From TrEMBL:
<comment type="similarity">
    <text>Belongs to the acyl-CoA dehydrogenase family.</text>
</comment>
<dbReference type="GO" id="GO:0050660">
    <property type="term" value="F:flavin adenine dinucleotide binding"/>
</dbReference>
<feature type="domain" description="Acyl-CoA dehydrogenase/oxidase C-terminal">
    <location>
        <begin position="235"/>
        <end position="379"/>
    </location>
</feature>
<dbReference type="InterPro" id="IPR006089">
    <property type="entry name" value="Acyl-CoA_DH_CS"/>
</dbReference>
<dbReference type="InterPro" id="IPR037069">
    <property type="entry name" value="AcylCoA_DH/ox_N_sf"/>
</dbReference>
<feature type="domain" description="Acyl-CoA oxidase/dehydrogenase middle">
    <location>
        <begin position="122"/>
        <end position="218"/>
    </location>
</feature>
<keyword id="KW-0285">Flavoprotein</keyword>
<dbReference type="InterPro" id="IPR009075">
    <property type="entry name" value="AcylCo_DH/oxidase_C"/>
</dbReference>
<protein>
    <submittedName>
        <fullName>Acyl-CoA dehydrogenase</fullName>
    </submittedName>
</protein>
<dbReference type="InterPro" id="IPR036250">
    <property type="entry name" value="AcylCo_DH-like_C"/>
</dbReference>
<dbReference type="GO" id="GO:0003995">
    <property type="term" value="F:acyl-CoA dehydrogenase activity"/>
</dbReference>
<dbReference type="InterPro" id="IPR006091">
    <property type="entry name" value="Acyl-CoA_Oxase/DH_mid-dom"/>
</dbReference>
<dbReference type="Pfam" id="PF02770">
    <property type="entry name" value="Acyl-CoA_dh_M"/>
</dbReference>
<keyword id="KW-0274">FAD</keyword>
<dbReference type="InterPro" id="IPR013786">
    <property type="entry name" value="AcylCoA_DH/ox_N"/>
</dbReference>
<keyword id="KW-0560">Oxidoreductase</keyword>
<dbReference type="InterPro" id="IPR009100">
    <property type="entry name" value="AcylCoA_DH/oxidase_NM_dom_sf"/>
</dbReference>
């Protein structure tokens, strides 16, 4: 079994690291405190090919594999999850267009995202619909050669900065079966009847834009339908293996950042006449963080590699997501403890990493949902 990365992959990691140190680190606290979207940093990331990194080269993207995208996410999230998510999320929703879109749709929607000219989003969750995706109530009705969309979406990344959203809608309320009758439709944010209300006061990832979307008789052309009408639920489900692996990479990155900060602080901070890194209690904390981070990394890389091979990894993706997010929360908790009182204020990055880590246990399927999936797969297919 080969565990090494290629020379090109190592180079990608190093370039992302330099970008993060030069562009993200100096601005991270400002964007977190002000809760503002880092447009300037996102523009620079686009120039490097970090925006829409998985979009194929023929549509302006870098064409990176899932594993390579995971490497990018890990490195960016180790420095600041809020800005990292702002960069990585600029292409949310485009996976559906890549897989099911027409050539016209790919040219209209993928190329501008890959070039950093537009920001996309995925609009699934609603005020009363989170983990239970099949309860989506936003409606899209056909009227001539247009779709008329009504409803509202909640917790939508890029809600007030996005140019278009791939929206999961109910298009056939009379369809038999819980998972039938849904479609994915591209809704541009400049359409009449579209509005977005920014959500502030978030615990973490505060640089990343989050909003509620309100759709009041929003009309979009029929050619904005992605894939097969009324079959979008199952289309959407197949992307969760990749997206949950992506969140696992976020968790690994946050834990990596926590370890980096804790190591530096423990070697600089002195008590009782010596660096606190000389105390066994601190050494054990560092050892635990490092070991758990490495275990999460290997699980995540394995999941990413299997996604690239086209394998069915529903169980593995949920394992990676659940475990890496748990490690992120535990690692940042211990990193704050190592910093003591200094870790309780935003003078050091660990305070921000601690707040940011929690979301990895919530979005793209909560910890509880991941455990349900793992158990279901075990009971249905065995170990």
């Amino acid at each position: 079994m080969e565990f090494g990365l290629t020379e090109e992959q190592e180079q990608i990691r190093e370039e992302v690291k330099r970008f993060a140190e030069n562009e993200i680190v100096p601005a991270a606290e400002e964007y977190d405190v002000d809760e503002k979207f880092p447009h300037d940093i996102v523009d620079k990331a686009a120039e490097m090919g970090l925006v829409g990194s998985s979009i194929p080269m023929e549509y302006g993207g870098a064409g990176y594999s899932t594993l390579e995208t995971v490497l990018i996410a890990e490195e960016l999230f180790s420095y600041d999850p809020g800005i990292a998510l702002s960069i990585m999320a600029c292409s949310f929703g485009t996976e559906a267009i890549q897989e099911f879109g027409t050539e016209d749709q790919k040219e209209r929607f993928l190329e501008p995202v890959a070039m950093g000219e537009k920001i996309s989003g995925a609009a699934i969750s609603e005020p009363d619909t989170g983990s239970d995706v099949s309860s989506v109530s936003t409606r899209a009705e056909k009227d001539g050669d247009e779709w008329v969309v009504n409803g509202n979406k909640m917790w939508i990344t890029n809600g007030t900065v996005g140019d278009f959203f791939v929206m999961l809608c109910k298009t056939n309320p009379d369809a038999e079966g819980r998972y039938n009758g849904f479609s994915q439709i591209v809704v541009e944010s400049d359409r009449d009847g579209f509005s977005a209300d920014k959500i502030t006061g978030k615990m973490g990832i505060r640089a990343s834009d989050t909003a509620e979307l309100i759709l009041d008789d929003v009309r979009v052309p029929e050619e904005n339908l992605i894939g097969t009408r009324d079959a979008a639920f199952m289309q959407q489900m197949q992307f969760f293996d990749a997206t949950r692996t992506g969140v696992a990479a976020q968790g690994v990155g946050i834990a990596k950042g926590a370890l980096r900060e804790a190591l530096e602080y423990a070697q600089d901070r002195e008590q009782f006449g010596q660096p606190i890194s000389e105390f066994q209690a601190i050494q054990h904390k560092l050892a635990d963080i490092a070991t758990e981070t490495e275990a999460a990394r290997n699980l995540t890389y394995k999941a990413a590699w299997n996604v690239d091979q086209g394998n069915d990894i529903t169980k593995l993706a949920s394992m990676a997501k659940e475990y890496a997010s748990r490690v992120a929360v535990d690692a940042t908790n211990e990193a704050v403890q190592i910093h003591g009182g200094a870790g309780y204020v935003n003078d050091f990055p660990v305070e921000r990493l601690y707040r940011d880590s929690k979301i990895t246990q919530i979005y793209e399927g909560t910890t509880e949902i991941q455990k349900n999936i793992i158990a279901r797969e075990l009971l249905g297919k065995g170990f």
